Each structure stands twice: as C-alpha cells, then as structure tokens.
Amino acid sequence: MFGYVRPALDRLGPGQKDAYQSAYCGLCHALGKRHGWLARLTLQYDFTFLAILLTAGEGAGERVCKRCPVHPFRKPRTCAAGGRMDAAADQSLILTWHKLSDDVEDHGFFTGLPYRFVRLLFRRAYRRAAAAQSAFDAQVRKGLARLRALEEENSPQLDQAADTFAGILACASSAASGEKSRRVLEQLLYHLGRWIYLMDAWDDLDDDRKRGRYNPLDARFQGQARENRAYLETTAVHSLRLMGAAGELLELGEWRPIVENILYVGLPAVHGAVLDGRWKDMRDIRRRPHERSLRSAGREP
Description:
By secondary structure, the protein is mostly helical. The chain contains 14 helices and two strands. The chain has a two-stranded antiparallel sheet with strand order 1-2.
C-alpha cells in the first residue's frame, strides 16, 4: 500500500479521533509484539484502515493501555487489541515485505542496495508473519507474479493490471469474521486496491517515463495518458462509489463514522490531490505518522 488511505481528522469528533488513535496505536503494538521493534517502522495509515475493517466485526473489541515506545514520557494510550489486530499486523508485514521485494526488482544492483538491506532487516519478521498467514502470503505471491508478468510484456490491458493488484488486497478479507462480512469486505478491499493502483500509476507517470519503467496508463494510452485524464477519473470514481456501497453493508459499530470519513472525505481529497498533481508536493502530510503528531499528519490537503 502507498500512503493514500488517510482520514480527514478535522472532520472527526474527539471521541472518533480517540478511536482512530486506538486503532493506530493498537496496530503499532501488535507489530512490535509479534514481529519486533523494527516492524513498527512499517506502520502506515493504509494498514490502520485495514486493521479497523478487520476488527470492526468484533464490536467495541478489546482495549488495553500501553505506553508508546517512541514517546515514553507520555501517559499510556488506549490501544485496540485482539486476534483481528494481530492478523492485520501479520498481513501488513507481508505486504510491506513484498513491496520491498518489488522495489528490489525495479532497481539495478547498486541502486537497489538500500532496498535489499531494508528487506534483509525484515526477513525474520516476514517469515513469522508468513507462517501465521500462509494462505494470504501465497495469494499475494501469486498475484504479484501475475502483475510482474504483465509489466514485463508492457501490457496495455489497464483493467487486467488493476484487477490483478486489486485481487491481492482483496485477499486480506480472509481474516474477517463471518462469511457475509468476508464477502462484503472482499469487495471493499478489491475496489480500494483498484483505486490505489490507478492513483499510484498517475502519481508515478512522470517518474516512470524518466526512468523508462512500465506504467499501465502510458501503455494503455500509448504515451497519451495525460490527455486521457477523464477516463481515469471516471473509472477511479466508480471504484470509490463501490467502496462506499460495500461499506454500507458492513457491521462497523463504533468504527462507522471513521470508515465513512475515510471513504467519503479522506479518499476523495487524496484523489483530487493526486490527479491535480499536488500530492507529490505535500511532503508535510506524507511523512510517517510517527514523525509528527497524528493531528497534524492527518490534516486534509
């Protein structure tokens, strides 16, 4: 995942902000507990959203008070906990590992050395996560292999490439509780993955051209992707709407205002910033959440 899934915190009430913070901190502690301190560095807003969706079926869920290792002198915070949070930690670690592996493949030997080093640091943690979520890891591997094959043949099939990436994220629904919840969550995550893939392709268009890398939009429109923004916007908005429709069917309990905030305010704000070319310049809101306060990092563009 790529940092596009953000809440609009100034549109949440104090209690809702606290609930979001509990999910964020809960995922951080689950990563540390299951995979070591370094695993906390993989924490992202995207994965926090995944954790919320997986734990929503547990109702209020388990809450524990933990002290933040990054801010040891602050009072302990309330953290969401439980089996679904642990599953979210495993899945986020697996996705991070495969993203690092993809970065290694995309760079030459010398330029890829930093990615190789970072991936090496997470090898043991990845193996533990993959052992706990073996089916999910296998599905991610299979999906990324299909995506890599499409890239290598410079495929112009934009929908096929987006569908392949979307299917990878949809696999995370396997950790949800209940068959109905799994089916609905699969649809939401599928369209979230599709939207992320399209946004990332547009966001990386100039850089991919400069480096001579495959970009599904340029392949589809034969180098005229910018001239076909309307097509991209239409199909991406369609995925946003289908995410919203799936979200209405989920049993979200206390998490509903937060999920709706992300789906109906946060994602559309990022959507507009990416398409207008403002997203890459927003370095202040794209930093890792642990580098600054949650409030300022989550401010709307």
